[in-house]
Amino acid sequence: MMRRLSFALGLALLAGGAIAAVPASAPPVTLTPDRPAAPAAAKPDARLERGRYLAIAADCMACHTAAGGKPYAGGYAIDSPLGTIYATNITPSKQGGIGHYTEADFARALREGVRADGSHLYPAMPYTSYAQLTDADVGDLYYYFMQAVQPVDAPERQTALPFPFNVRLSMLGWNTLFLDNKRFVPDPTKSAQINRGAYLAEGLAHCSACHTPRNALMAEIGSQTLAGASLGSWHAPNITSDKVSGIGAWTDAELTAYLKTGHVEGKGQAAGGMAEAIQNSLQFLRDDDVAAIVAWLRTVPPVRAPGQTQAAFSHGSAASEEPLLRGMASSTERHSLNSGAILFSGYCASCHSASGAGSTGQAYPALFNNTATGGSTPANLVSAILFGVERKIEGEEHEAFMPRFDQRSYVQPLTDEQIAAIANYVLKQYGNPDVSVTPAYVAQARSGGEKPVLARAQPFMLPGGIVGILLLITLFVWLRRRRQRKE
User: Fold this and answer.
1) 3-state DSSP: the chain helix, strand, coil percent, rounded to 5?
2) Where does residue 300 rank: exposed (0-12), middle (13-18), buried (19+ CB within 10 A)?
3) What are phi and psi of 199, to 5 degrees?
4) If I label 59, which of 129, 286, 347, 376 is the partner at 20 to 30 A Cα–Cα?
5) How does the average pLDDT of the chain come out, rounded?
6) Angle between helices 287-297 and 252-261 (to 10 degrees)
7) Lowest-pLDDT range, 17-21, 58-62, 196-200, 225-229?
8) Which distant-in-sequence residues (6+ apart) come within 8 Å of 173 by Cβ?
9) Helix (H) or strand (E) holding 234
10) Angstrom distance (rounded) from CA 346 to CA 230
């Protein structure tokens, strides 16, 4: 959301075989930590495993599990542009979770954003995408959560957005305008594989929730589907089939590798919400499902960013200014970290190398031919420096890791000016030289990124509403008196 906004793949069980049903050979039970190992003689429950696979594909764990918390017990803070939204407890606890939900209650919450008590969820929970899920898939998800997830009785942390966003009933009007509560219908002109990918990506994966820009009321702009969008301080890139602005120039093998590992040499690396989606969800999908998503991505209409003529991954080459920095400062110099080149040498070169070529094997990636440094926005470069990168892939010896350099850094907190200097050096040396970063931009990213129009207007809504009511009362009184005079 946010998380990624990100952010964030389901299974269709449609009649006629247009999209294959989930086979019994679902991923092993060790994929999530919420279920103890079954006895060796236990008979596998095919429906439970289908539900487990759907929950993994939907990336439920990422948003409904707080750091260090119990699986699906809620409390995870989603930093939305309108304020912090805390994910709910979706364990089968009758005290703190959804244990009292019927399957119909569960389906309504999942696809319409309405809880069992009738209150509305915020679209940080991507029910606008989940609305496409089939009844069979919703039923399997419900069965999994009720039968296999450990109940946690802890009450959920309450969301308290500022007025008027705290009026959940307002979501009734928003849903009337923007919720298309229709199930997925396969396109008869497309192959079964492409239809499968469409269902996976548009439904449970809710790709558009992060990668599609939103209008003033925070609804997705249909004409710009998957054309890239801001997610707080991060930026979810264009993933349309355009060969310059999107992923049209990526090979199928590269797209597959990215979805499974979050890393493609010479292209890019996943961070922020996308890293979470890969770590918790995408890496565990079956190969045929990933292939279906890649096939579907090829069919997404291309959207070219205005004025862009060069792909983000095509910028830069290896270069080093390290020899020029030697002997520039005296041994008693107290303020020697006074340029982007010197800061880069001190804080970045030990991992990314002095030439920006990264480490052998690219555990620490090159800074050229990199979408984070070659894009039309510096958002992901600055956010990576501020908040770091963490991404763990099963089977890989080392976790992808970059320390954070914001005020919570255990390495060295850097100022806005220092981060801007490093970012500008990297952009000019290895990335898109037409992009630049100011300390004010870093400060904005540090505080969560640029606020949308709706969030900026929030402080004026209450006084504006009061003024509007007073004007209506005044108009009513004036009209009444005028009528009385005529009578």
Assistant:
1) 40, 5, 50
2) buried
3) -65, -40
4) 376
5) 87
6) 120
7) 17-21
8) none
9) strand 234-236
10) 30
Q: Are 208 and 226 in contact (CB under 8 A)?
A: yes
Cα–Cα–Cα angle for 126, 408, 458, rounded to 5 degrees? 45
Cis-peptide into 5, omega within 30 deg: yes
Quick: pLDDT tens for 146-172: 999 999 998 878 888 888 788 888 899
Q: Dump pLDDT digits (tens) for 415-463.
A: 999 999 999 999 999 999 999 999 999 999 999 999 888 777 767 766 7
As a whole number of angstroms, the distance between CA 263 and CA 260 comes to 8
| pLDDT given for residue 68 in this prediction | 87
User: What tokens were used for 371?
Assistant: 């979408």
pTM attached to this predicted model: 0.84
Among residues 412, 419, 413, which one has the least CA distance to residue 443? 419
Question: How far are the Cα atoms of 10, 11, 65, 281 from residue 32, in angstroms, in the given order?
Answer: 16, 18, 12, 10
Partners of 268 in the β-ladder: 264
End-to-end, the C-alpha distance of the chain in Å comes to: 59
Cβ(188)–Cβ(16) below 8 Å: no
Q: What angle do CA 428, 432, 438 make, to 5 degrees?
A: 65
pLDDT band of residue 405 (cuts 50, 70, 90) is: very high
Whether 199 shows a pLDDT value over 90: the answer reads yes
As a whole number of Å, the CA-based R_g of the chain is 25
Cα torsion 146, 150, 156, 159: sign: negative
- Residue 248 CA, distance from chain mean position: 21
Give the residue from 52, 86, 62, 51 showing the smallest Cα distance to 7: 62
145: nearest Cα among 20, 61, 43: 61
Percent of the chain with pLDDT over 70: 87
Dist. CA 139–CA 146, nearest whole Å = 11
Report the pLDDT averaged over residues 259-269.
95
- Kind and range of the H or E element at 404? none
Residue 343 and residue 224: Cα distance in Å, rounded? Answer: 39
Q: pLDDT tens digit string along 4-55? A: 433 333 323 223 333 333 333 344 433 333 344 444 445 679 999 999 999 9
Residue with tokens 């989606």: 277
